[in-house]
Amino acid sequence: MQNTGNTENTLFDKIFRDSNGNIVIAQPPNPPLILWAAASLLSLVLTTGKINTVLDVLANGALFTWAWLELFDGVNYFRRGLGLAVFIVIIGSKIL
Question: Where are the domains of the chain?
Fold first, then answer.
């Protein structure tokens, strides 16, 4: 569904549409998100030792990278806001 006839961008368009006029809320996972999911699942199985620490660092680093990429390169304001929210949660969880 594209925004073809209307040259004026509404707030909805700015939040949810990409540069091609497509509504984008979810996208296929990119490598940092896949790495985060894999490392997080493995850390649930391997719960002790250095390997768990490495998996935790990998998972947090990958999610941080994904949030950073969404925050600065997200296709619309919704995706950028999602990146900001995840970024804040990551930082907050490490501070508390």
Answer: 27-95
